[in-house]
Amino acid sequence: MSKMNDMAMTIEELCNAAATIADAADWLAKQFSGDAAEQPPAEEVAAKPEPKPQLTLEQVRAVLADKSRAGHTAAVRELLLKYGASKLSQIDPANYEALLREAEVLGDAT
Questions:
Q1: What is the dihedral of CA 20, 22, 23, 27, to 10 degrees?
Q2: Dist. CA 73–CA 6, nearest whole Å
Q3: Every domain of the chain and the residues it spans
Q4: Where are the stretches annotated Disordered (predicted)?
Q5: Helix/strand/coil for 51
Q6: 8 Å CB contact between 99 and 56
Q7: Which of 45, 65, 72, 90 could form a disulfide with 85 if both were Cys (CB 3.0 to 4.6 A apart)?
Q8: Single pTM value for the model
Q9: pLDDT digits over 97-109, tens only?
């Protein structure tokens, strides 16, 4: 990967981190402001599972790029083909989580 691609990926990761921090700050502000009567009981809050954040193309690309740089380029290509694509942008975002789980274990079995 070129330095420009690495820089673009780093900028994207920083933007994602900033958005996550902003979301956390908003949540904290909501929790510590307003009436106690407006807040649901603790057991109601605990009963509602938080939805998983949707993985982005950039997050998956970063992991695959790391695996490729670590010498697993052929295995990364095989994973892409397994999900019916020759490049990551052709993969259905619904498959990102499964693809990422498989990619993260590449090279772990030594």
A1: 140
A2: 17
A3: 1-49, 52-110
A4: 33-52
A5: coil
A6: no
A7: 90
A8: 0.52
A9: 999 999 888 876 5
